[in-house]
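Feature request, filed as a ticket because there's no other form

It would be nice if the structure record came with a short human-readable summary line next to the tokens. Right now we just get the raw output. Example of a typical job, pasted below so the devs can see what we mean:
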Amino acid sequence: MSTTTTPSVNARSYDSVAPKKVAFLGLGVMGYPMAGHLALAGHQVTVYNRNPAKATAWLQEFSHTAAANAPHQIAATPKAAAQGAEIVFCCVGNDHDLRAVVLGEGDHQGQGAFSGMQAGAIFVDHTTASANVARELSALANTLKLSFIDAPVSGGQGGAQNGLLTVMCGGDAAAFAKVNPIGMAFARAFTLLGESGAGQLAKMVNQICIAGLVQALSEGIAFGQKAGLDMVQVLDVIGKGAAQSWQMDNRGKTMVADRFDFGFAVDWMRKDLGLVMDEAKRNGARVPVTALVDQFYADVQAMGGQRLDTSSLIKRLR
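Raw output as currently delivered:
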């Protein structure tokens, strides 16, 4: 077993799917376990990571899952990882990182994944990025006889480890149909929502809803504590009624306990809400509460909470 500090993958039951040769670019807190589930489901996986040590750790952890004639591999570049792969999965940081690994820009000069992919191969991007970059890369893929699916995820680190992510997709229906059974190795739902960019737009809706919920939960808990209530008991009660939410079930009691050392970081949420603000300016949507919560998260960053879980929003109220 690897000595990596990345949390291990919790194996689950996998649907019977013909093994595929796939690649995974980006082994962060999400990509590492997602690639692991693909290996555990029986697929031959070639991994690429900017930090080679992470790729080495992944291979050490999952090499035992490979067939003798189809070992998992490490590639030195995105191009090398993509060569021969039927499907290339990717999960990196932002638009800039995505363009770099796909097109061979910056540190990946001339070694982008598209340049290594064979005609008919499919690129599946799990990065939370802009709808514009999804449309841009999809259009380019078409000219190269490739397919591009934008497929951001929801469910956080726990969802990735347990193989229970919700995946929101945009792109060609035929390409999606080929990817869907493979991606279900790390998902509880893998859904096509429209044309290219639709997955990213759906993820923005997801983040808008979460931002409002976390702020409301923060205010409710802070109010109850000021009023002298036993908020653990209160959450148990109201969690059985109309106020119930995933955030309340999974973050409410840790917020009461002032614990924020897990989950989705404030820095990442601010990046995502920045995408929301940009898209709202473009399409004319009004998102006043989201804009306000985004500024509240900026306050948490200024307090030193950049890497705390998003539920740390309550710190502003204490």
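Something like this underneath would help us a lot:
The CA atoms of residues 219 and 314 lie 7 Å apart.
Strands lie at 21-25, 44-48, 73-74, 87-90, 122-125, 147-150, 153-154, 165-169, 187-192.
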